[in-house]
């Protein structure tokens, strides 16, 4: 049991009904999880308002209600605490409950449309190689000092985060690296966390279903930097149009990295091949097996973060040289007959364009490039025609198929995509709704040395159709089909 007074430390309180001098069990923001003597924090959500579950929470044993609006009927023996913003209060309560774990380790957060999973994973692997115990919170997985926990969100809720960071501290972790999504920032899922370093990759078209306008989307990302304290360092990408904007109003120390202009951390691609790149960072050369200009940029951010965290530059570059691809990020393999298959998580127009540009830069002109791509349902619809346009323009053949239709009609999503194809490229497109069939057709049509890009799902091991998830892995299916088809 914990003292409510201690949990409320630093929470900005507007009104209290009944005493706070009590002991409580746990904190919950979901009434369905309430147990005896818990604190229920009522949060206004995207679909429902948590305030409508206050009575339910009390009936299940909640002893304390934290809310923005006091209920009209007060239950005797229950303590009500009115606050201005429940999500911020929840963040502070969560930090207090778990004894402020992010003050006991160095936390690095990375935000941006693309590159968060790649950079945080590389940071985790780099610092592990450098001999530190670390934690990672990413779209693919959560890892605490080598032990993996499946991940449900890119940025989990603030109770889960604090619980995990406490576990990381208890296990002796020195560093934690986490992805900070725009949803996470907007919903205050990172409220109260103490970031030592905050990184920005880039901002391009995505999530307009949620943020409505690009300006709102930029503002959401920028809030992460606006809220940093003086003691933090913010590192941003000078190559991105909005890289400087991100740091405009931050109190943190500002650093920039860039491949194209001058910056605190300056990088350059010396050589670019199918099996890697020779890079130069701050006048020091090294080899990486990662490919693509976007990965040079990701690596530069990683280098910048390590530098801010006072790691030796040479040791860092040596370790970076040994790191391979992140799962489902430009994951490539050759089939028996010599077809190159690349599985990549590009699920935004910008990511798809970058991946296709990378392939274009390193391939010879003779072989065919076949792109298999779809767009997720219940997500930003405006990216659909753009992704179809890019795929058809930059490939010899683009096969449009399903990604995760979720609750949407797969055919409808494909129709939204096809609108984007320019008239002169129609004849290089096919529509095959079933993703496995689409991959099969690509493999059947490919000849030795041809390249097949399977985009959009990367590491994912499921496909969600009509709200039902079944096992599905692009890598597994492509490997299996190329064997069956003797390709
Ligand atoms: C759209 C969105 O982001 N929704 C998130 C949000 O849920 P919500 O606001 O819809 O919650 P709600 O259902 O309206 O409920 C409001 C409140 O009432 C409570 N409640 C609800 C029902 C009940 O019976 N009792 C009760 O107490 C809920 O616990 C909640 O506190 O808050 C929840 C708790 O933190 C999240 O799990 C949920 O993520 C949903 C599942 C989701 O799919 N989110 C995606 C879009 C997302 O967040 N993606 C980003 C990545 C984006 C990127 O790749 O860049 C991520 O960080 O993962
Ligand atoms: N710095 C970058 N700039 C542009 N595209 C990138 C960059 N890094 C990776 N990509 C592309 O974006 C895809 C997704 O990369 P990654 O998973 O690292 O991004 P993310 O920001 O974590 O995405 P999510 O929002 O889904 O969590 C990659 O598969 C690659 O195609
Ligand atoms: N984090 C991203 C992932 C999209 C991946 C794609 N495969 C899809 O399902 O739309 C999102 O939730 O928008
Ligand atoms: Mg991610």
Automatic annotation (TrEMBL):
Named cofactor requirement(s): Mg(2+)
GO MF annotations, alphabetized: ATP binding; magnesium ion binding; UDP-N-acetylmuramoylalanyl-D-glutamate-2,6-diaminopimelate ligase activity
In-chain residues carrying the UniProt-annotated modification N6-carboxylysine: 221
Gene Ontology cellular component terms for the protein in this record: cytoplasm
Domain Mur ligase central: 110-306
Sorted UniProt keywords: ATP-binding, Cell cycle, Cell division, Cell shape, Cell wall biogenesis/degradation, Cytoplasm, Ligase, Magnesium, Nucleotide-binding, Peptidoglycan synthesis
Compartment annotation: Cytoplasm
EC number: 6.3.2.13
Pathway membership: Cell wall biogenesis; peptidoglycan biosynthesis
One matching Pfam family: Mur_ligase_C
Domain Mur ligase N-terminal catalytic positions: 24-97
Main localization of the protein described in the UniProt heading: cytoplasm
Reactions mediated catalytically: UDP-N-acetyl-alpha-D-muramoyl-L-alanyl-D-glutamate + meso-2,6-diaminopimelate + ATP = UDP-N-acetyl-alpha-D-muramoyl-L-alanyl-gamma-D-glutamyl-meso-2,6-diaminopimelate + ADP + phosphate + H(+)
Keyword Cell cycle: yes
Residue ranges of the motif Meso-diaminopimelate recognition motif: 403-406
Annotated residues for binding of meso-2,6-diaminopimelate: 379, 403-406, 456, 460
Residues the entry annotates as binding ATP: 112-118
Residues in Mur ligase C-terminal domain copies: 328-458
Transmembrane annotation, as ranges: none
Alphabetical list of SUPFAM superfamilies matching this protein: MurD-like peptide ligases, catalytic domain (SSF53623), MurD-like peptide ligases, peptide-binding domain (SSF53244), MurE/MurF N-terminal domain (SSF63418)
One BP annotation, GO: peptidoglycan biosynthetic process
HAMAP family (UniProt xref): MurE
NCBIfam families: murE (TIGR01085), PRK00139.1-4 (NF001126)
Annotated family: Belongs to the MurCDEF family. MurE subfamily.
Primary role: Catalyzes the addition of meso-diaminopimelic acid to the nucleotide precursor UDP-N-acetylmuramoyl-L-alanyl-D-glutamate (UMAG) in the biosynthesis of bacterial cell-wall peptidoglycan.
Protein name: UDP-N-acetylmuramoyl-L-alanyl-D-glutamate--2,6-diaminopimelate ligase
Organism, as annotated: Chishuiella changwenlii
Native organism taxonomy: Bacteria, Pseudomonadati, Bacteroidota, Flavobacteriia, Flavobacteriales
């Amino acid at each position: 049991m914990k003292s409510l007074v201690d949990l409320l430390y630093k929470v900005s309180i507007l009104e209290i009904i009944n005493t706070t001098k009590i002991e409580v069990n746990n904190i919950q923001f979901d009434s369905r999880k309430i147990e005896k003597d818990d604190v229920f924090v009522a949060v206004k959500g995207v679909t429902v308002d948590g305030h409508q579950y206050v009575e339910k929470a009390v009936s299940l044993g909640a002893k304390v209600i934290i809310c923005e609006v006091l209920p009209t009927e007060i239950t005797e023996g229950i303590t009500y605490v009115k606050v201005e913003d429940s999500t911020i209060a929840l963040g502070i309560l969560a930090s207090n409950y778990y004894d402020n774990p992010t003050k006991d380790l160095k936390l690095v957060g990375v935000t941006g449309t693309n590159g968060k999973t790649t950079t945080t994973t590389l940071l985790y692997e780099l610092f592990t190689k450098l001999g530190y115990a670390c934690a990672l919170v990413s779209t693919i997985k959560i890892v605490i000092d080598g032990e993996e926990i499946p991940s449900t969100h890119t940025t989990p809720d603030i109770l889960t985060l604090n619980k995990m960071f406490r576990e990381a501290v208890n296990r002796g972790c020195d560093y934690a690296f986490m992805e900070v999504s725009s949803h996470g920032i907007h919903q205050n899922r990172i409220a109260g966390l103490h970031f030592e370093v905050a990184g920005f990759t880039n901002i391009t078209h995505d999530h307009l279903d949620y943020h409505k306008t690009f300006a709102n989307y930029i503002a959401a990302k920028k809030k992460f930097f606006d809220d940093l304290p003086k003691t933090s360092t913010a590192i941003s990408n000078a190559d991105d149009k909005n890289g400087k904007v991100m740091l405009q109003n931050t109190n943190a120390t500002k650093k920039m990295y860039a491949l194209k202009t001058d910056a605190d951390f300056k990088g350059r691609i010396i050589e670019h091949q199918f099996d890697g790149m020779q890079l130069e960072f701050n006048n020091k050369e090294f080899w990486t097996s990662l490919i693509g200009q976007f990965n040079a940029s990701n690596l530069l951010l990683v280098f910048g973060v390590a530098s801010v965290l006072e790691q030796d530059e040479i040791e860092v570059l040596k370790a970076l040289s040994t790191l391979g691809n992140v799962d489902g990020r430009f994951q490539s393999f050759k089939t028996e007959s010599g077809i190159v298959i690349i599985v990549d998580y590009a699920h935004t127009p910008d990511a798809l364009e970058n991946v296709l540009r990378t392939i274009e830069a390193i391939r010879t002109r003779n072989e065919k490039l076949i792109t298999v791509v779809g767009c997720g349902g219940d997500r930003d619809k405006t990216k659909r025609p753009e992704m179809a346009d890019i795929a058809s323009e930059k490939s010899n053949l683009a096969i449009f198929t399903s990604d995760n239709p979720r609750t949407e009609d797969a055919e409808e999503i494909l129709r939204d995509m096809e609108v984007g194809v320019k008239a002169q490229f129609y004849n290089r497109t096919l529509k095959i709704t079933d993703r496995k069939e689409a991959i099969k057709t690509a493999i059947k049509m490919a000849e030795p040395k041809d390249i097949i890009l399977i985009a959009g799902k990367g590491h994912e091991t499921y496909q969600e159709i009509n709200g039902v998830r079944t096992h599905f892995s692009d890598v597994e299916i492509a490997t299996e089909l190329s064997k069956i088809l003797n390709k």
